[in-house]
Amino acid sequence: MSSLLRGEEMCLAQLFLQSGSAYDCISELGELGLVEFRDLNPSVTAFQRKHVNEIKKCEEMERILGYLLREVKKADISLPERDVNPVAPLPKHVMAIMEQLQRLEVELGEVTRNKEKLQRNLLELTEYTHMLRITRKFVQRTAEVSVSLYMFSCLVKIEAFERMLWRVCKGYTILSYAEVEEYLENPDTGEPTKCVVFLISYWGDQIGQKVKKICDCYHCHVYPYPSSNEERNDVVEGLRTRIQDLHTVLNRTEDYLRQVLIKASESVYTWVIQVKKMKAIYYILNLCSFDVTNKCLIAEVWCPVNDIPTLRRALEEGSRKSGATVPSFVNRIPTSDTPPTLIKTNKFTSGFQNIVDAYGVGSYREVNPAPFTIITFPFLFAVMFGDLGHGVIMAVFAAWMVLCENNRKLKNTRNEIWNTFFEGRYIILMMGLFSIYTGLIYNDCFSKSLNIFGSGWSVKAMGWTKEQWENNRFLTLDPNVTGVFKGPYPLGIDPIWNLASNRLTFLNSYKMKMSVILGIIHMSFGVILSTYNYLHFRKKYNLYLVFLPELLFLLCLFGYLVFMILYKWLAFSAKDSRHAPSILIHFINMFLMQGDGLQPLYPGQTGLQIFLVVIAVLSVPVLLLGKPVYLYWLHNGSHRLGLYRGYERVRRNSEEELYLMRAHDMEEGSSHSDLSSSGENPTEELLHQAIHTIEYCLGCVSNTASYLRLWALSLAHAQLSEVLWAMVMRVGLRMDSTLGVLFLVPVFGLFAVLTVSILLVMEGLSAFLHALRLHWVEFQNKFYGGTGVKFCPFAFSLLPSSFEHDGLL
Amino acid sequence: APGFSSEKQLTFNVDHGYLEGLVRGMKAGILTSTDYHNLAQCDTLEDMKLHLQSTDYGKLLSSSEEDLTVSLVDSKLRANLVTEFSCLRSNALPPLSTFLDYITYSYMIDNVVMLITGALKQRDVAELLPRCHPLGAFDQMAAVGIARTPTELYSAILVDTPLAPFFQDAVSESNLDEMEAEILRNKLYKAYIESFHSFCKNIGGVTADIMCPVLEFEADRRTFIITVNSFGTELSGADKSALYPSCGKLYPEGLRLLAKAEDHEQVKAVANCYPEYKLIFDDPEPGADFKTLEDRFFEQEVKLNMLAFLQQFHFGVFYSYVKLKEQESRNIVWIAECVTQRQKSKIHNYIPIFPGTH
């Protein structure tokens, strides 16, 4: 729990890796994903680093793998199951993989080239047969004029071709053409294209040259023209047999190609993982630096303090595997750098942590709002989404996702919208459950009320006569008449309100006050959480100079408002409800310090109110000036501290001592460095504090008002669902013939669709967004800095694969 | 009128906002001085590939099986630019689409002249086509070699292409030889740049404010280069002034003087009258690296093109992006050449783009 509240404690550690076992050690660390490596050679460019050749080799293998995967995909062969997680291959085994891959590439390349050649050949022969068949008609017409004949066939922009032919040859040609009915496959793009067959008759050699050039320009294929009918028949016959032969050869080639690909597809996934891991290891090795003797590598890592034993064990394991005689070891080193933030999460908390991280990753060891968000976020959502029925649907949907979370199909889908829902399944589940709860409190289920315990109101006790029933459209239940009001409903709102015409007035007042109460509690909680930060970072003065005035300001003004709301609820019953005062007037009068004309709520009200306002007003200058003045005083009046710092500077040479001192520093928190930075510039500190003060004091007013969105959205949701019921469902229920039953089916369908699409999805998203805002802005700005850097461990499982990105895996 | 142009700015984003955003994003990927610094430290092309992987080029160079050569780098970079450009072009609406087409016409002109000279040297079309710039590719390209005279070229082959309007002054019955091809190029280019200039002027607004200076500079650069290259040829003053684009800042007085210029000093005297060109023809400061005239013009062009990104709601960014990216390709190829030929001393002669950015 403490790690979820504050994040892990991190330390900077040096790894001394023996050059023989470095590869295995890093491979071991990559499997575990414990540490984040720092670049120790930032000034060295990528291609000047030590292991650049190995990385190039990996890239070459990746290229071949990409080629293999593309071919496998083209051949529509499915890859085998991907449960394998092979370790990174040893450097000595790499050559074997490389050779295998290269052999495969050469083989595949040859077969593919062969296949393409055969296909091209086949295409040519097919074109030729088509041409001979079609041009038979042309010849009969043009036989008399032709001096020499050539035939061409291909796809072509025939109008443009004809025009250019005419222009260049000045009309000394005759062109006849016809379209081929079948679509032939274009060898370059593989798409079926429409082709044209044509016949050009021309006079003279010179024109012949030009015609040939134009045909080249339009990528026409030229075929010899058989001079006689017998020759033509021979050619056709010959073509037919050759096409048949080609088909058999082509089929054989394709079979062979498929076999090669199937063989390759069996191990291609293993290779992809292996190469990915290997490349990552060399990349990390490039971040390390060499020690003077050149016998061991030095790496600097950020590591959670708690995981150091695991880290040690991993290094031992790596050394053992490589059979190194000298072990690799870890050494913690002191640092003044701020470590990255690591908050360990599980599948339940990760969604909530993501909500917080989306605002900003917490500063190192700062209070993390996520554990509180787990409860407050679904609760505030549910306040706006309060409907039992909708909550049940949402909870059931989320529960289904939770139960099927190990289903591969659901997990690995590429649909981004679906993934968003799936990642947030626990959030949705919590939101659904809380909506069921608030729905019960509001007594709202698809805009209808449930009468579980029996209403506390009795109509009979009013003793209305038949005349009164008939003549009045509205009748008022009077709780003061004995027997009419038997006591409050045990859980939530009494169902009788669902029938009342003043239901909205009643609920509005209730929900508005509830929103203010929840808001003030939420914000005060945020302010109180800031004390955890002050205490942890050893800034006790902030407790008195920042936290206390802040809390006093909030509670004296708005806390008192909450008190008045509760007091009014408790002090006034149905009997004296006519004398119940308006809280708003009292609250305004509190600031104006008048109100002599009003009946006080309770004895001593005026005095208490003046006292509270004075305290609130006084806390503003304390908040504004307290911290900067204190820091200024501390800086100018404490020479001892300066002496201590001087001592540190003098003894910098001795590293061990420095480490001890730094450790001492760290135990005391970062107060020294904070003092030195802020004390040196009092005006800047004053400016910051002034901005903070203004923001906080104005924020208290605007943030409280902002919580009224809880009321507004809850109202909107209830009204919308009521409208849907009245406009759709009631229409279907009104028909009382047998036909009405049939009519009810489509009406219910429409009702269901609209309920899900508008009330659940759209309203749900909007309530989600507003809950998000209330957390990010109103809650977190009271204590959360969110200026940290996320810890990104070196882990093979987190590495993206470029093949996945290209959709090849 | 200012009112008109501001109204255009208001509605600019409706049609072209997406593409402007896109091109500005792509501009952010242009290599910085740190990148060049790192590239210049490379010892092999493999090193360069490794470094380019960390830039926006990503896996561009590593995806091929063949061994890296400078020409492969060049063609990959070119293909990359073409991919980006065709993405812009296929999403463009008029008048931006016309504007983008105008950018490609200059490449078409170069391709036509290249194919003609190639045909004169009896080269095979199949060998020439891959060397054409893909931005200037068009259907009838392969048939260019058939033509014997500019008139034939126009009436038989290019009449259907967008280049046809630029042939107005270029048609002649003289046989195409190398000199004639060069003259044809310059005549076409003159017509092209004048047409582009007036097109930008008609668009008005910020586009005209940005593009006109760029195109005027381009016109004047060609004028200077034609003049310098004509020394020692039989081109007369009248011939030359027929080739000078008339939309530049040199028009009309500077062009008249340049047509008469006989040597470098006279050209310099003309340039001295124009502050923006005086700098280019100035003698290099002692101690500074010697730079060719061409490089100095490139440097000035990069400066002008960078200015385009300071304003919004105009088409100039598209032109400037293509030109800057081209310059970047030239830089990378230059560094790659130096790396392969072990000419480390000359490696810093590239022209940095956005020198201040990191």
From TrEMBL, chain A:
<feature type="transmembrane region" description="Helical">
    <location>
        <begin position="740"/>
        <end position="762"/>
    </location>
</feature>
<dbReference type="InterPro" id="IPR002490">
    <property type="entry name" value="V-ATPase_116kDa_su"/>
</dbReference>
<dbReference type="GO" id="GO:0007035">
    <property type="term" value="P:vacuolar acidification"/>
</dbReference>
<feature type="transmembrane region" description="Helical">
    <location>
        <begin position="379"/>
        <end position="403"/>
    </location>
</feature>
<feature type="coiled-coil region">
    <location>
        <begin position="94"/>
        <end position="128"/>
    </location>
</feature>
<comment type="function">
    <text>Essential component of the vacuolar proton pump (V-ATPase), a multimeric enzyme that catalyzes the translocation of protons across the membranes. Required for assembly and activity of the V-ATPase.</text>
</comment>
<protein>
    <recommendedName>
        <fullName>V-type proton ATPase subunit a</fullName>
    </recommendedName>
</protein>
<dbReference type="InterPro" id="IPR026028">
    <property type="entry name" value="V-type_ATPase_116kDa_su_euka"/>
</dbReference>
<dbReference type="GO" id="GO:0000220">
    <property type="term" value="C:vacuolar proton-transporting V-type ATPase, V0 domain"/>
</dbReference>
<keyword id="KW-0812">Transmembrane</keyword>
<dbReference type="GO" id="GO:0046961">
    <property type="term" value="F:proton-transporting ATPase activity, rotational mechanism"/>
</dbReference>
<comment type="similarity">
    <text>Belongs to the V-ATPase 116 kDa subunit family.</text>
</comment>
<feature type="transmembrane region" description="Helical">
    <location>
        <begin position="542"/>
        <end position="567"/>
    </location>
</feature>
<keyword id="KW-1133">Transmembrane helix</keyword>
<dbReference type="Pfam" id="PF01496">
    <property type="entry name" value="V_ATPase_I"/>
</dbReference>
<keyword id="KW-0813">Transport</keyword>
<feature type="transmembrane region" description="Helical">
    <location>
        <begin position="514"/>
        <end position="535"/>
    </location>
</feature>
<dbReference type="GO" id="GO:0005886">
    <property type="term" value="C:plasma membrane"/>
</dbReference>
<keyword id="KW-0472">Membrane</keyword>
<feature type="transmembrane region" description="Helical">
    <location>
        <begin position="424"/>
        <end position="442"/>
    </location>
</feature>
<keyword id="KW-0175">Coiled coil</keyword>
<dbReference type="GO" id="GO:0051117">
    <property type="term" value="F:ATPase binding"/>
</dbReference>
TrEMBL record, chain B:
<keyword id="KW-0406">Ion transport</keyword>
<dbReference type="InterPro" id="IPR044911">
    <property type="entry name" value="V-type_ATPase_csu/dsu_dom_3"/>
</dbReference>
<dbReference type="InterPro" id="IPR016727">
    <property type="entry name" value="ATPase_V0-cplx_dsu"/>
</dbReference>
<comment type="function">
    <text>Subunit of the V0 complex of vacuolar(H+)-ATPase (V-ATPase), a multisubunit enzyme composed of a peripheral complex (V1) that hydrolyzes ATP and a membrane integral complex (V0) that translocates protons. V-ATPase is responsible for acidifying and maintaining the pH of intracellular compartments and in some cell types, is targeted to the plasma membrane, where it is responsible for acidifying the extracellular environment. May play a role in coupling of proton transport and ATP hydrolysis. Regulator of osteoclast fusion and bone formation.</text>
</comment>
<dbReference type="InterPro" id="IPR036079">
    <property type="entry name" value="ATPase_csu/dsu_sf"/>
</dbReference>
<comment type="subunit">
    <text>V-ATPase is a heteromultimeric enzyme made up of two complexes: the ATP-hydrolytic V1 complex and the proton translocation V0 complex. The V1 complex consists of three catalytic AB heterodimers that form a heterohexamer, three peripheral stalks each consisting of EG heterodimers, one central rotor including subunits D and F, and the regulatory subunits C and H. The proton translocation complex V0 consists of the proton transport subunit a, a ring of proteolipid subunits c9c'', rotary subunit d, subunits e and f, and the accessory subunits ATP6AP1/Ac45 and ATP6AP2/PRR.</text>
</comment>
<dbReference type="InterPro" id="IPR035067">
    <property type="entry name" value="V-type_ATPase_csu/dsu"/>
</dbReference>
<dbReference type="GO" id="GO:0005768">
    <property type="term" value="C:endosome"/>
</dbReference>
<dbReference type="Pfam" id="PF01992">
    <property type="entry name" value="vATP-synt_AC39"/>
</dbReference>
<dbReference type="GO" id="GO:0046961">
    <property type="term" value="F:proton-transporting ATPase activity, rotational mechanism"/>
</dbReference>
<keyword id="KW-0813">Transport</keyword>
<dbReference type="GO" id="GO:0033179">
    <property type="term" value="C:proton-transporting V-type ATPase, V0 domain"/>
</dbReference>
<dbReference type="InterPro" id="IPR002843">
    <property type="entry name" value="ATPase_V0-cplx_csu/dsu"/>
</dbReference>
<protein>
    <recommendedName>
        <fullName>V-type proton ATPase subunit</fullName>
    </recommendedName>
</protein>
<comment type="similarity">
    <text>Belongs to the V-ATPase V0D/AC39 subunit family.</text>
</comment>
<keyword id="KW-0375">Hydrogen ion transport</keyword>
